Amino acid sequence: MSRNTVAGWSFILPNFVGFAALTLLPVAVLFYVAFTNWNVFGVAEWTGTANFRRMWNDASFWTALRNTVYYAVFHIPLTLAAALGLALLLNRKLRGVRFFRTIAFFPYITSIVAIAVVWNQLFSPEYGPINALLGAVGVDNPPGWTASATWSMPAVIIVGTWRYMGYYMLLFLAGLQTIPAQLYEAAETDGASPWQRFVHVTLPGLRHTTFFVTVLLTIESFKVFDLILVMTGGGPGQSTLVLSQYIYQKGFEENQFGYASAVSIVLFAICFGITVIQFMVNKRRNS
Amino acid sequence: MKRAIPAVISAATALTLVLAGCGGGDEPVDPNAPVTITLAGWSLSSTPEFKTLADGFKATHPNVTVELKEYAAGNDYDTQMITDLAAGTAPDVYVMKNLKNFYTYQSGGQLLDVSDATSGLDSVPALASYQVDGKTYAAPYRQDSWVLFYNKDLFAKAKVAPPDGSWTWDDYTDAAKRLHTGLKGAGSNATGAYQHTFQSTVQGFALAQTPNADLLSGDFGYLKPYYERSLDLQAAGAQPTFGTAKTNKLTYQAQFGKQQSAMLLMGTWYVATLLNQRKSGDADTFQWGIAPAPQFDKSTTGTSATPVTFGDPTALGINPKISKSKTAAAKDFLKYAAGPEAGKALAGIGITPAQVTDAVTASLFGLDGVPQDDLSKFAYATHTIKPENPVSKHTAGLQNLLNETHSAILSDSKGVDAELSKAQSRAKNEVLNQ
C-alpha cells in the first residue's frame, strides 16, 4: 500500500466506522427483525412474512399511510412555492436583505417544542389570535385547528411549511446566484417581460436546484415525525397519525419491534421508490 | 508490530474472561460485608421518594448502600429502562411506574423471582398484580388512588354545598354546573371542574366502577355514560374543553392550585405536589379538601360504605443480571420498601405507600397544610382500588387505541357511539388477535 492510500483510508475510516456501526448495521438488522416477532428481550422468533400480511389487514396502518400521503401531497408543493418565492424576493439588492434572510431562516433553527407550543396557542379555537382574526374579517364558523379531527392536518401542514421554507429558500438562493446575470440582460434587451424572464431564464437555470430540493423535500415529508408528535401527538383520534409515529408507537410503546420494523421497511420502500422515479424523470429530461 | 496485535487481543480476551468469572462467583455471602446496590429513579432533585427509601434502609442495614441512578421521567422512563435491560447495563433494582409494562418485563425474563422476600407482605393489596404462576416478581411500594380534590373557598363563594361523600357522577355533574353559575354570579372566572387530558380521567373510573367492565374483553360500552357526562360538562361551560386544555397546554397543578377550577379529579400524589407548590408560591393558599371519587351508583357512597376507585401501584423489581453477592441485600431492600416502616416514611413526604394503615394516615395528615376534616381522612384511607392497566400482553395496545378514542370523542367527534364501535372493531382486528 502506498503512503497516499494509507493516509486516504485513515481519513475515511473513523467516519465510515461510525456510519457502519450506527447506521448500516442497525438498518441491516432491521431487515432481519421485520421478518420476526421480537419484544426486545430474548430471541427473535422467525415468522416469515406474517408482519407484512398483518399490515394488509391493519386499518391503523392504512390510516397512517393515508395521512402521510395527505401531508406530503400538500406540504411538498406549498413548501416549494414558498421557498422559491422567498428566494426570489430576497435575491434582490434590497436594504436589510441579510436581516430578512435571517428572519426567513429562523423557524428552521428554532426548537420544535417551542414551535409547537406557540403555534398551538395561536391555533387555539376559543382564545387563539388566528380565529380572532378570522372572526374579525367575517368568518362565522372558524376552524377548530388542532382540536378538530378535520382541521388538525391542515394546521400541521401550515406549520410544517412555515418551518422548512427557510431552509429550502437558502438552497434556492444559492441556485439563483449561479444563473449568469448576462442571461437576464440579454432577455431584457430582447424585450422579455418579468414573467417571461422568470419562465425562460430563472426556472431553467434553477433546474438542478429544484430537482435536489424536491428530492430532499419528498423524503423529509414522508418521514415527518417530530413536528406532528409535539403538535398533536397524532390526534385528535388518528387524524394526524403518520407512518413514522405509528412505527414509534408499535415499537417503543407496545414493544412489537418485529412489526414496527416491517412498517419501517414499507416507509423505506416508499421513499426509495419515489426518489428513484424522480431521478429517472430528471434523467429523461436532461437527455 | 504485526505480532503485537494478536497478543493484545488474547490478553484482552483473557482479562474479559477473568472479569466475567468474578461476577458469577458462588462464594458464601458474608451478611455484614459492605454491599452497594444500584436503584433506578427519575427526576431525583424533585422526587424525594427514592432518597427517602435509600436513607431509611441504610438506617436499619448500615452495611448496605443504595446508590441512585437517574433515568428519564415520563413515558421515556420505560423506553430507557427496556434499552438498558436489553443491553445489560440496567441497575440492580428498578422501578415499574405502572402495570402497563409489567407484562413486558416479566415475560421477557427481566425480573428475579422475589417470592421469598415478599412472603410476609400478603396484606399489601397490590401484590397480587405482580404474581404469575404462584410466583411474585415485584414488590409494590406505593399505590396512589384517584380522589376528588375540591376548593372549599370557591364552593362557599358559589354558595354550593361541598361534597359529603355521598356523590354519584350525576351529583358531581350537577354540582359542577351549579358551581359554574354560582361562580359566574359572584364575578369569578373559575370553572366548576377541571378534567385533565389524561384518558384515565374518564376511562379509569369507568373501568373500575362499572359492574363487569373488562378492558381485555374489547367491549367498551361501559365508557359511554362517562363520556356523555364529560361532553355535557364541556358543553355547559362547567369545565374547560378538551381542545382548550390541549392547545393551551393547561396543567392540572395550575388549574387547581391557582384556583381556576373548584374541583379536580386526580391521584393522591397530588397532595405532595400541592403542598410543595404552596411553599414555592406556584399555588395559592386556600381551604381545600379531599372527597371520595364520585361513584357509579348509590350502593358505594357514604362514609359507611367503601367507595370504588382506580390507581396503578408502583413497584420495585430486581434485575436478574444482579451479581449473586448483592441479591440478598436487594431482596431485603424490596421487603423494606413495601413494608410498614417505609410506608410511614413515604407518607411523611406526602407519598401514598402501597398499604395505607392508621399510622400512614396519621403521618400524612400530620403534614403542614393538609386538611384536617374527617371526610378528607376517610377519602384518603378508605377505598377499593382497581388497577387501571390489568396485566396482559394486550394492555399496552388497547390503552394506545383507547387514548386515540379519548381524544376523538372529546374533540369534534363523530359521536360517542360511532367512536366506541370503531374502537371495538379496532381492538378486535388490531390488538386482541395478535
TrEMBL record, chain B:
Pfam families: SBP_bac_1. Residues 1-20 form the signal peptide. Keywords: Signal. The lineage of its organism: Bacteria, Bacillati, Actinomycetota, Actinomycetes, Micromonosporales. The keyword Signal applies. PROSITE patterns: PROKAR_LIPOPROTEIN. This is Carbohydrate ABC transporter substrate-binding protein (CUT1 family). Transmembrane segments: none annotated. It comes from Micromonospora violae.
